[in-house]
Amino acid sequence: MDTISPQDWTALCGLMNGWVQSTALGAACELGLFDFLSRRPGATVEDVAAGLDITRHGARVLLLACSATGTVQRDGSGAYANTALAEAYLRSDAPLSMASFVAFNQKVQQVGCQRLAESLRQGRNAGLDAFPGPGDTLYQRLAADPASERLFQTAMAAYTRLAPGMIEAEELSAARVLVDVGGGDGTNAMRLCRRFPELTVTLVDLPSVCAIARKRVEEAGLERRIRCVEADMFRDPWPEGDAVLLSHVVEIFAEERVRFLYAKACERLPPGGRLFAWTLTCADDESGGLQAAKSSIYFVAVASGHGMAYPASQHERWLKGAGFGELRRHDARHLDHTLLVATKPGP
């Protein structure tokens, strides 16, 4: 055979052109296309060009790209509107908006992950070179750039909305004082306090992150139930509590650091206390899924130079090795996530 079959060409194009979808989403969100079409359903190309302050030709290209991605639909008269997906998740003011994560994906993840091959050859996160500043991890560099730090925290808050299964876990109902290690901007802490009225949370994170979290907690009127403690999760002692939460934390780090965090949690908890680890995970045979692969590339090429969406079975071995007894696994395979609940044995 001296040519590519239509089926193989379609499959190859799907692999080679994945960047088209994320690029179109990023541009549409940045220019405000989905917000505009929400206000003006049935808009023409000319309307979009004027509303977004771009050329008519540019509007045609953008609308073509978004139509191809399934985020915009065109009727027979040439009028455009958001699809249900875009209306629900890509408007900047939608309750479940992922627009901030789209921006983070475009401006940080995609930029840095272009250096994956270089990162693998050098054994370091070479993609971090695209973001000047002090420190060997993206998180250290974000701390020195308030605008980028806000983008990251807002994006992670949106991403955290993928965790309904985590906050519904029945084991959380027994917790009274939860230590949220690496708790970010307080999104999880606030959701958990609203879900469990008797719960108080101590959020532990770096000073620049705690400043963001305190403001959000105060705006939510939850400052009596959520306090923020500035600390390095590896170097500094953790506050006391009967439960520890590590949400979107352990997958960032190499195995030895994950094992250290699990051992520190077990040492800090009282007998019967529980560790809740909500983490990205790949299939146990490491054959998928796509979100697990994307995140693993990002950790290695940009964020830390280490870590990956480890299999849940590997986490279970580490938790046992750290001294935990009973383990429960709540799978969210459709999200490439797992909630692991580990209980410290009694005396």
From TrEMBL:
One GO term of the biological process aspect: methylation
Domain O-methyltransferase dimerisation: residue ranges: 15-92
Coiled-coil portions: none
Domain of life: Bacteria
PROSITE patterns in UniProt: SAM_OMT_II
EC number: 2.1.1.-
Record lineage: Bacteria, Pseudomonadati, Myxococcota, Polyangia, Polyangiales
GO MF annotation terms: O-methyltransferase activity; protein dimerization activity
Annotated Gene3D superfamilies: 1.20.58.1390, Vaccinia Virus protein VP39 (3.40.50.150), Winged helix-like DNA-binding domain superfamily/Winged helix DNA-binding domain (1.10.10.10)
SUPFAM superfamilies: S-adenosyl-L-methionine-dependent methyltransferases, Winged helix' DNA-binding domain
Protein's UniProt name: Methyltransferase
O-methyltransferase C-terminal domain location: 115-324
Alphabetic keyword roster: Methyltransferase, S-adenosyl-L-methionine, Transferase
